[in-house]
Amino acid sequence: MKKRLFAAVVAAAVCISAAAGCASNKKDAVDQKGKTVFPVSSYDETLPIAMGDVMPFYDDGVMNIYHLRDDKDGIYYHPISRLTTTDYANYVDEGVALNYEKIPNSVDAALGTGSFIKDKDGNYHCFYTGHNDNAHDDDVKLDYTEVIRHAKSTDNQKTWVKDEEFKLYGGENDFRDPYVYYDAEENLYRMLVTTRASNCGVIKSYSSPSLDAVWKDWKDDGIFFKNDGGDYNMECPSYVEYNGFYYLAYSEQGENRVTHYRYRTQKNGEWKKFERDSIDSSGFYAGRLEKAGEDLYAFAWCAKLSGGSTGGFDWGGNLVAHKIKQLPSGELCAVMISSVKETFSTPVQYKNINGGKVSGFSFDGEKFAAHGVEKLAKNVTRVSFSINFEALDGDLGITFGLDGKYDNRLGQGLIAFDGKNNSLTCYNNVSSILRYGSPLASVAFNYETGADYQVDMIIDGEILTVYLNETVCLTARIPNMQKKNFAFYSNGAKAQIKGITFYE
């Protein structure tokens, strides 16, 4: 059954102003009607159910966000569920599309990532991963842990019927995350699969003239791309042609845990990479590219944290969506989706701890300084400002989770614009101005003195994304931000923060 998907706090605050949506100096004054930027899969009453790998599919003006739902019952887990949206602020929970099979020897004991595509007859196809943790047990006796499976919908994605005979094996236990697309030049469907060859991660290619073909009629075309940065698995591949460039995206199941991309300018040309070859940071995992008309988007999930609020990223969390801007060189930059910016565009006023309006701060860089601000609202909040370094020493930014109205203190976590180390970084285990702990997420960015860098930040619940100069972005999770004080700080940076504006 369809249901409107609300944010973590189901009941939105009601605007007490006479004019709905008006500017106000009262936090949570805007009735956001349950809008959310980083939705979960669904809710069990009010408890959120996290989502994992995302399988975006654009069809007839609607973005279908198929995804692995974080449901687990022993070896049976991860049904494929679906959200739909047209504006990336209002989401509808369409429920589970494909479920696992609670049968010990089923190849679908657990489900893994797949992809969705529409054929010329208007029918819908899903190619997905079947997985069984106990595949090699004596009482199960499956040849491999993973297999590519197929399901079809003939009623506009309302119901899906599995093709029980379709079992495409690749001769490896790691054989998963199929991505199927149509090759118009050759009038073929192609399937990219994450797997391994010669102890290295590779993406293999298969082809078929029909989506209804039996498994043995999918031709093995060999290796499409071999890992050029290590031997790790390249998870959740996606492939798009966009404005004369061909892009392959995949996620690193390795130390860096980011979504990389490669490009080429000819269909069968050499794969190349830019110096910055990732979309977002480690807070944006299993990212996939998807076109919607003339626009290009990237979708992934921001994980829950292990070990409490100061832990690292775990598995399953909230959806993250970016609009992708293509530079003339072909480089891809993640920017805020325009409909998200328009939705959360009502100015609200924040005051510092002394009651003054927050608009900007100047730091001399001689010592640590932080200017406390009143408590962050529970509403989705957008913050816009610019930064300008007079000298590339130290870092400055926003620190969250202060336990009271304090100047010159750091909270539990912070977002650092680091001129000294040329990075945009999130720390979530801050103990002092000398010890930030290990970075939770970070992206490289080269600052110059005297330049104004525009920052647009969106905060929803525990998650935030920082967009820097429409060039790089960083998504991270910092618990305990809302209803706690925060501050703008400088730790040795001679710089200015200007034009601070808050929106709900």
SS field, number of helical segments: 1
Q: What integer is the average pLDDT?
A: 93
The main pleated sheet reads as: 7 strands, antiparallel
Distance between the termini: 30 Å
The coarse silhouette is globular
Instruction: Provide the helix percentage.
Output: under 10%
Q: Which range does the strand content fall in?
A: over 45%
Class based on secondary structure composition and strand pairing: mainly beta
Show unreliable segments.
Answer: 7-25
Compute the number of strand runs.
Answer: 38
Gyration radius, in Å: 23 Å
Folded structure, characterized:
There is one protein chain. The chain has 504 residues and is an all-beta fold. Helix content is 1%, strand content 51%. The chain has 1 helix and 38 strands. The strands form 9 sheets. Strands 26, 27, 29, 34, 35, 36 and 38 form a 7-stranded antiparallel beta sheet that branches. A 6-stranded antiparallel beta sheet has the order 28-37-30-31-32-33, with no helix packed on it. A 5-stranded antiparallel beta sheet has the order 1-9-8-5-4, with no helix packed on it. The radius of gyration is 23 Å and the shape is globular. The model is unreliable at 7-25 (pLDDT under 50).
